[in-house]
C-alpha cells in the first residue's frame, strides 16, 4: 500500500480459537480480493481496515468467523450496490479516470464464499467509503489437535496444512481432481467464471464457444482425455442439444459413456426431457452454483 500511501489497520476482536480447519487457499483468495478492491478504490492517504471477529455458532465444533473490510474510499452509489457481485459490473464515477468496475474478482469472491457455506454483504455510501462483510463457519481445532497442526499463517488465523490441501466439497480421492472437463459456453463472461470455479476444484478445463467446436475437440481427443462435457444449450453454429446428439452418434465407446451435463437457464420439465432425449445425463441451472455442479459431476463420474 506504499505506492498510494494508504494506511492499513488490522483489528482483532475476541478470537477464542486461533487455529481452524479450512481451505486456506480459498480463504486467502477471499481476503486478497476484498482488500485489493478496497485498495483500488481508496484514494491516497486513505484508510483501509480489516476487522476479524469470532462469533458463536449453533453447529458444534464450529465458530462463525467474520472478516470485515472497511475503507473511506470513493464509495458505491445506491444504484450500483445490487450489481457489485455481477461479473464486470460497471458504474461511471467522475472522480476516477477509469470506469468503476468489479471485473470478475467480486463475482468469483461471492462464489467462493458460498462454496464455504458463508455470506458476503456490502454497505456503502458514495463519497464516504465501503464495508464488505464476509461471514464463514469454520471448524475449530481443539485440545491436542490444535497443537498438532502445521499452520499456514493467515494474518490472525492458522489453517491446518492438511486442510489447505483439501478444497471445499472435494474428496481427497475424488475422480474430479486432476480430471479434464470439456466446456461449451458461448457467453465469454459465463465461460470465464465456469473455468475459474472448476479450476479452483483442481480440474483442467478446455473451453470452447459453440457446440460445433465442442464436437470437433471431443472427436480429436483420445479416449479418456475428458471425464465429462458441460454443454450450454443456446449456442450459435451448433446448439447444445444437437452437439450432444452428434457426439453420442460417434462410432467410439467413450462417446456413448462420457457424462454430458446440460447448462441451461431453462429448467422446465420439457427442457429437461429434451436434454435426456438427446443423450444428456443431467442438467444444472444457470447461473452456476458450484456445489450443485460438483454434486452432479460426482454423481455421474
UniProtKB/TrEMBL annotation:
Stored InterPro entries: CheY-like_superfamily, HATPase_C_sf, HATPase_dom, His_kinase_dom, Sig_transdc_His_kin-like_C, Sig_transdc_resp-reg_receiver
EC number: 2.7.13.3
Keyword set includes Kinase: yes
Enzymatic reactions: ATP + protein L-histidine = ADP + protein N-phospho-L-histidine
Keywords: Kinase, Phosphoprotein, Transferase, Two-component regulatory system
Domain Response regulatory, chain residue ranges per copy: 180-301
Coiled-coil residue spans: none
4-aspartylphosphate, modified sites: 232
Histidine kinase domain: residues covered: 1-140
Enzyme kind, highest EC tier: transferase
Protein name in the entry: Stage 0 sporulation protein A homolog
Provenance organism: Eisenbergiella tayi
